[in-house]
Amino acid sequence: MNVLVPLLIFITGLIFGSFFNVVIYRLPEGKSIIAPRSFCPSCGAKLKAYDLIPVFSFIFLRGKCRYCGCKISFRYPLVELVTGVVFVILYIKFGLSVEFIFTVFLMSILLMVFFIDLEHMIIPNELVIAGLIGGIALFVLRFWFDDALVGDSQWYSPILGMLATSGFLLLVALIGLAIYGTDAFGMGDVKIFLPIGLILGLKLSVISLVFSIFIGGITGLFLIITGLKHRKSHIPFGPFIVMGTFLSILFGNEFFAWYVGMLL
Ligand SMILES: [Zn+2]
């Protein structure tokens, strides 16, 4: 395999990841993601271009601010690396195609959801709306281009995907609210499945939901058994949605074929 294209895609991922860091840091605080220029959250020093080279600046500065010496969160290089790796994996899966562009788009939104929900226990509406805009673009494109496709081929599949997944979570949230007075899933979890359903269509978005609940359940059980969390403590569900969706994009069709084969 030619290594140049994956390398370029990896570097592109690092650069995008560097922008996602800005969104992850500023969006929950209600700050603008465009201005001002990046600064050290500790001493406020404006960062120069050479302080902002993805991953490398962090290594070169040994994880400390050049100006005040305070520690830089390991989250910054982590987000950049994960974004680069996710982009390359999607390229290996889909090549340069419509599927590649829209799964990269969806996973970009979801990577920001992952880190924001993990820290703040919220999924910002701005990310849901950005995801919906991309989803609507894909939905419209497929009326003109037969290959503008990520999930199933029926035109209404994205609408069913949204209704089935968001609808299911909404129902569970409402039942939980009625019986226990608390909702197991937040409204952010309900809403983020709108762009997931719209982009992946019915089959893959339902599999995303199944995978997320499965991974979330196992992790929750593990955290309770090991005493790291209590039964009542809140565990954000967003990160599991992100992992479940990524696995569904990569293996959802194979999983479906295996599952149907088992039933027959
Ligand atoms: Zn500083």
From TrEMBL:
<dbReference type="Pfam" id="PF06750">
    <property type="entry name" value="A24_N_bact"/>
</dbReference>
<keyword id="KW-0489">Methyltransferase</keyword>
<dbReference type="InterPro" id="IPR000045">
    <property type="entry name" value="Prepilin_IV_endopep_pep"/>
</dbReference>
<feature type="transmembrane region" description="Helical">
    <location>
        <begin position="74"/>
        <end position="94"/>
    </location>
</feature>
<feature type="transmembrane region" description="Helical">
    <location>
        <begin position="157"/>
        <end position="180"/>
    </location>
</feature>
<feature type="transmembrane region" description="Helical">
    <location>
        <begin position="127"/>
        <end position="145"/>
    </location>
</feature>
<feature type="transmembrane region" description="Helical">
    <location>
        <begin position="6"/>
        <end position="27"/>
    </location>
</feature>
<dbReference type="GO" id="GO:0008168">
    <property type="term" value="F:methyltransferase activity"/>
</dbReference>
<keyword id="KW-0472">Membrane</keyword>
<dbReference type="InterPro" id="IPR010627">
    <property type="entry name" value="Prepilin_pept_A24_N"/>
</dbReference>
<feature type="domain" description="Prepilin peptidase A24 N-terminal">
    <location>
        <begin position="11"/>
        <end position="94"/>
    </location>
</feature>
<dbReference type="GO" id="GO:0004190">
    <property type="term" value="F:aspartic-type endopeptidase activity"/>
</dbReference>
<feature type="transmembrane region" description="Helical">
    <location>
        <begin position="192"/>
        <end position="225"/>
    </location>
</feature>
<feature type="transmembrane region" description="Helical">
    <location>
        <begin position="237"/>
        <end position="260"/>
    </location>
</feature>
<keyword id="KW-1003">Cell membrane</keyword>
<keyword id="KW-0378">Hydrolase</keyword>
<dbReference type="GO" id="GO:0032259">
    <property type="term" value="P:methylation"/>
</dbReference>
<dbReference type="InterPro" id="IPR050882">
    <property type="entry name" value="Prepilin_peptidase/N-MTase"/>
</dbReference>
<comment type="similarity">
    <text>Belongs to the peptidase A24 family.</text>
</comment>
<dbReference type="Pfam" id="PF01478">
    <property type="entry name" value="Peptidase_A24"/>
</dbReference>
<keyword id="KW-1133">Transmembrane helix</keyword>
<feature type="domain" description="Prepilin type IV endopeptidase peptidase">
    <location>
        <begin position="105"/>
        <end position="221"/>
    </location>
</feature>
<dbReference type="GO" id="GO:0006465">
    <property type="term" value="P:signal peptide processing"/>
</dbReference>
<dbReference type="GO" id="GO:0005886">
    <property type="term" value="C:plasma membrane"/>
</dbReference>
<protein>
    <submittedName>
        <fullName>Type 4 prepilin-like proteins leader peptide-processing enzyme ComC</fullName>
        <ecNumber>2.1.1.-</ecNumber>
        <ecNumber>3.4.23.43</ecNumber>
    </submittedName>
</protein>
<keyword id="KW-0812">Transmembrane</keyword>
<feature type="transmembrane region" description="Helical">
    <location>
        <begin position="100"/>
        <end position="118"/>
    </location>
</feature>
<keyword id="KW-0808">Transferase</keyword>
